[in-house]
Please model this.
Amino acid sequence: MGSNGTIPLKDIWRMLDMCAPEHRKKKTDHCWRIWFGEHTTKLPLGEHGKRENPPTQIGHVRHLVRLFEIDECARGCLPQL
Amino acid sequence: MKNYPIVFSCRDTIVGNGFVAQVSIDGRAVLTHEDGGDLWMFGVQPGSVAGGIGAVQHVNGAACAAAFAQFKEHHTMSLFDIASDAESFDVFKSEVEKYFAQVHEANARDWAEALEAVRRSQTAIDDVVTLSADSRKPSLRVDVIWAAGRASTVEIEASLNVQPRFEQAA
Model:
């Protein structure tokens, strides 16, 4: 795994509550599955398996916010983006 | 930031609830080298997958392979999750088809622009094979290897074991 930046999962949930309030999420055996509108995507559970607030690589978050088309709002919540 | 158009092929044998399936995908992804050094593959189709590495100074075959390994792991985890939730092969196949059908529109635009740029400048990533984008369109095949009461839809032989691969589209 690389050394690129990460964002705590709790901060991602806070951003989604703000920018995609109708989203739904479900923890599966291997990842978090997230639905918003007609789109669905996944966030990994973290490098060491299931944890409550794993650091999530920024690339996964960038991918998610572009898929959900919430880039501008997300950047306001997560300046790291 | 610089984007490169990537095509990839993955074949995964997945064990589900009462079945064994093989999922063969030809897909597209955008390889992005961020200004900070992150090197990420963002799925175009299937559009829900991404994976990457950090601290890459020079984009070459080894760096791309490391980013692709992370991308491929995320793809495989997605198939594992679909298998976990599916009570039969038919449900699994249907859900994989939905997974594959989702196109990441923003990444698709980046992919098309990157392809145009590559064709204009004739540039290629060091140590990465190039392939005409027109020669490998996105495609999906889901086969039964084993399920109660069903015949396998593929010959069960060692040639089913195929390494995942990626190329730069040109």
Remarks:
- Residues 2-169 of chain B form one domain.
- The longest strand of chain B covers residues 2-16.
- The radius of gyration of chain B is 17 Å.
